[in-house]
Amino acid sequence: MMKKIVFVILFFCFSGSIFSQINEAGIFVGGSNYIGDIGRTNYIFPNSFAIGGIYKWNMHPHYSIRATYIYSKIQGDDAQSSNSFRKYRDISFSNDIHELALGIEYHFFKYNLDKTGHTNTPYMFVEAGAVNYGTLDNGRTFNFTMPFGAGFKTKLAPGIGIGFEAGFRYTFKDDIDSYPFDLDSTNVQINPNNNDWYVFTGITLVFAFGREGCYTGSF
Which of 13, 40, 115, 199 is packed most tightly, with the most Cβ within 10 A? Predict the structure, then answer.
């Protein structure tokens, strides 16, 4: 009888190491910048505030499933560009976006906020998402986006993690910068073959919760 009890305990401990759900939830705070037909062409040059929420399920010490929601204003101004043609053209735009995305995060080193020696790692991520923004003709609309990027995260306190990341977003349209004016009526030259990009750069602060299995973090 005792052997059966020990076997059951060990079984559930081992099962917990595979199926335990160690969760993280928190906030993203940072900045955004747009890369397109108007304004600067810097890949990372935050010029608007961005804020959102983030959730991660650490399914393995090297992998996490992540979901994010981020809100920000996106803007571009030819007057701030180093391109002489854009400076002469001198137009600007501003739009506000809501992005919801889901994807996977890969940790270069084993990561677990509750394990000594597993609390620092660079990482990269790739997601699929949808973004909502304003357009001149159709009001607010949705578009697909493909976020990808990299960062570094570490343990700030027991059960609390902090990270820094930069994520690039490729969109499948060229109309984020068409709001709030009609580009055709302004007689400006816009390249319709270049779809818009935007970038979020900032800090994540997360709180871990969920019960660990006996072997979690050891494989």
Answer: 199
